Amino acid sequence: MAPTTTAAAAAVAEQQQHTRKALGLAAHDASGHLTPIRISRRNTGDDDVAMKVLYCGICHSDLHTIKNEWRNAVYPVVAGHEIAGVVTEVGKNVERFKAGDNVGVGCMVNTCGACESCRDGCENYCSRIVFTYNSVDWDGTVTCGGYSDMVVVSERFVVRFPAGLPLDRGAPLLCAGVTVYAPMRQHGLCGPGKHVGVVGLGGLGHVAVKFAKAFGMKVTVISTSPGKSQEAVERLGADAFVVSTNASEMKSVMGTMHGIINTASASTSMHPYFALLKPKGKMILVGLPEKPLQIPPFALVGGGKTLAGSCMGSISDTQEMIDFAAEHGVAADIELIGANEVNTAMERLAKGDVRYRFVVDIGNTLKSD
Ligand SMILES: NC(=O)C1=CN([C@@H]2O[C@H](COP(=O)(O)OP(=O)(O)OC[C@H]3O[C@@H](n4cnc5c(N)ncnc54)[C@H](OP(=O)(O)O)[C@@H]3O)[C@@H](O)[C@H]2O)C=CC1
Ligand SMILES: O=C/C=C/c1ccc(O)c(O)c1
Ligand SMILES: [Zn+2]
Ligand SMILES: [Zn+2]
């Protein structure tokens, strides 16, 4: 069909540069069921890095998106923004990477470079940000993520994997890791003498515990799952664990925390958590439940508490975080799965049944028949 506007014509022309064939896993409707799909990737541009995907973590954002819980899905959706792999080709202007390098790509693949956020080095808040998947890129194509055998990404959005950090256990750091590390650093929750709470012991929450301990802080997990208590303390290194529905356990830590990183994927009731903060304490919200939050005003106003949101991190935050992780032995606890197991993994993630991040072994298992 002929394009109807100049912009549409340009978009189609640009799309025709996407001649490289790739294999992906796509959701086609709000059932979220994933099936193999043939997709196109652009040719490696002068500033681009082409990468063979080896591992991709499954973030709860992928699940929110494929089930259209945020009402923004553009089907078919090829999700995945915790992408670890190896460089296969670089464009002629690329100086920082070469074929064979171990690299990662997180949540964004394009930003304007000119807005106030970009100029401040906070391109994760760019007004024209293009996310790694389910986002319209500037050439008019819809981005496809790392549930795919290869990606082509501008060098600016590629980070280097430090030696010693395994690609499979490191992949989740590219979203989960930086999403908790960046606000801890930004809000000063990153040093000895501080007590931080982590709401929700899932993919984000368990790496928040590990970073908090690496920063030398006291950390308390606030969870809905009593069954996670022992491993939170013994395996992940938390100092304490309280069940959010247990009034006496919650009372025992009331008014003790300098800050809370709230990673809950579904809880909208914030009231019980504010009571755990010291006066002037900070609640950093990173979880993105489908439904609006409920916040009684007195929970926030009394004690002069702050509620802040935080989204991902910048590219420099991501490189800093991953270098820090390698130096301090921080990596995700993962369940490595094959491409044929993603639908079961999504069902289990929806029920909170994962320890603590599914990672798809794309390199060994995503193959065409
Ligand atoms: N701001 C950002 O930039 C980013 C935001 N996100 C968002 O963060 C959230 C967490 O992601 P992720 O860690 O991958 O998800 P997970 O599913 O791995 O973990 C979420 C955890 O939330 C807790 N939880 C679930 N339901 C409830 C409930 N009804 N009440 C209280 N707690 C609940 C559970 O922990 P427990 O069993 O301990 O209670 C669960 O393990 C998602 O909404 C995701 O979209 C993700 C990445 C980046
Ligand atoms: O407002 C934008 C939110 C973006 C976002 C949220 C969660 C996540 O995992 C992302 O990669 C992006
Ligand atoms: Zn994510
Ligand atoms: Zn910008």
From TrEMBL:
Keywords: Lignin biosynthesis, Metal-binding, NADP, Oxidoreductase, Zinc. Pathway: Aromatic compound metabolism; phenylpropanoid biosynthesis. Its cofactor is Zn(2+). The keyword Membrane does not apply. GO terms for molecular function: cinnamyl-alcohol dehydrogenase activity; zinc ion binding. Belongs to the zinc-containing alcohol dehydrogenase family. Its EC number is 1.1.1.195. The keyword Zinc applies. One of its GO terms (biological process) is lignin biosynthetic process. This is cinnamyl-alcohol dehydrogenase. Gene3D superfamilies: Medium-chain alcohol dehydrogenases, catalytic domain, NAD(P)-binding Rossmann-like Domain. InterPro entries: ADH-like_C, ADH-like_N, ADH_Zn_CS, CAD-like, ER, GroES-like_sf, NAD(P)-bd_dom_sf. Homodimer. Pfam families: ADH_N (PF08240), ADH_zinc_N (PF00107). It catalyses: (E)-cinnamyl alcohol + NADP(+) = (E)-cinnamaldehyde + NADPH + H(+); (E)-coniferol + NADP(+) = (E)-coniferaldehyde + NADPH + H(+); (E)-4-coumaroyl alcohol + NADP(+) = (E)-4-coumaraldehyde + NADPH + H(+); (E)-caffeyl alcohol + NADP(+) = (E)-caffeyl aldehyde + NADPH + H(+). It comes from the Eukaryota. Residues 32-360 form the Enoyl reductase (ER) domain.
